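Continuing the series of single-chain predictions for the mutant panel. This is the parent chain; the variants come on the following pages.
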Amino acid sequence: MHQFSIRLKDCDGERIGRQLARIDVESSGGRGFATIDKSGECFAWSNGDFLYPMQINIRSPGDVKGPYDADFETPDDKMGTYAYDDFFARMQGSGINAGRVWMTPWFGGVEWSKDNPGFHGLGQYNLQNAWPLDYLLDHARKKRLLVEFALLHHGPFTMKYDSQWDENPYNVQRGGMLRQHHEILTNPKARDMMKRRFRYLAARYGAYTSLFAWTLWIEVNVVCNNNHKVMEDWHRDMAAFLKDLDMSRHPVSTEFSTSDGSPPVWRLPEIGYVQVAAYDSGYMGITDVFRKRADDNLSYSKPLLIEEYGGFWDGGSMDYIAHSIHDGLWAGWMLPLAGAPMPWWWNFIFEKKLDRFYTVFAKFAEAEDLRTEKWQFHKFDVPGFPDMKCLARVGRKTAYGWIYKHSVSNPQPPKGRNRGWRPELRDVHENYRKNVNSEFSPIKSTDAKIFPAENGMTLSIPGLEKGLYFIEFWNTWSVEEATMTHAESDGRNLIVRVPETSSDIAFKIKRQ
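Parent structure:
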């Protein structure tokens, strides 16, 4: 039983109140809200259950950006919010349990210039644009999905790429208080106005169990030219303000376009978790980039997420991006990440049915609780097979691994060849195609014979307690049942004899 009262103050300052009333609340039996686990290293539900977010970017219904040789359908503009009906159905059916949505002038944003339909300028919110987010959160709740909201993004407050500064109601030329776009982080009046917006958002959406987290900014460093002191001051104040207003205490984070973000911001106690992008770069493919991001950002002792990936930031061939999206799921599990890496290309993924990659991975990860061990993370060479590598997560009674062909998962442009960005992407695609069977396509193939069969591989896994272990081998491209065998650890090493395979393969090792 709970008691409550309502107190209001009108525009003349007159206070209106009522006496305490009573409400009886029954337990829902649900998991509660997404939160940071008490270990500080992963996510959990407020009832204590382990939460491993399997995420995808679903910024808005459509996206004008696509792989450079793109040939795929995007949702009809007329569908608007209802495009998410299909997105959520596909997510639920494949095991994707979370997605990030941006609040933008073109979808879900509540404050923008009054000469745009539905908007009324500063401080008066677009209820027509707020409704879609109500719809998304309610729909997500029914399907047991999570939605992360990105509250601000770089475009309205930059003169660089994606700039919308000329249309921004904070711009003095539009009747606002800012003469320069970067003053959004330092101007007291602008901060007060933004606090009003945050208060409204917390009140409207904070009670939803389907809300995963608040991301304060997308690429905030672009707004202020990487001024770390300015970013630290703004985030300290605004994150604390939002957390205080949010009755459900959803996790709070932010985002940067750079690989290391802003260390002063990541160290703030008000920031609950760290998230970084991990697109391929130069001569570093997906596994190398992922490992570097993990190594560079673990010192904060907070949950770490890879929040964008999939080929290069500017795209790549469709086959290359599709293969990268597949590999990212398995590489991510074998690294100290708090959730599955979150790819960008959602329209491409859904139209080409690449969400099937998650179906296999979700089955592999089902019912696993990564809090049960203190993990060691390894990258192994496979003796006698110089192009085969293994990423592994090893505890005392459990281990997981993913064996892959390096030249397939990390194709590189020819060394010493500098032909510009787009030609380099084509070089990477050409090398990728040379290293896979000519009949194989990650978009079309379900029977993945990616390379000539490799037979006779063995791995020595260190650190497992002495005893007998079950080993499961998983085809990462198919929902077929895992094959099982067993092996014994002498307390120092356990020898894994890998079955013949013509694709990457994952394994689980568990004490009998």
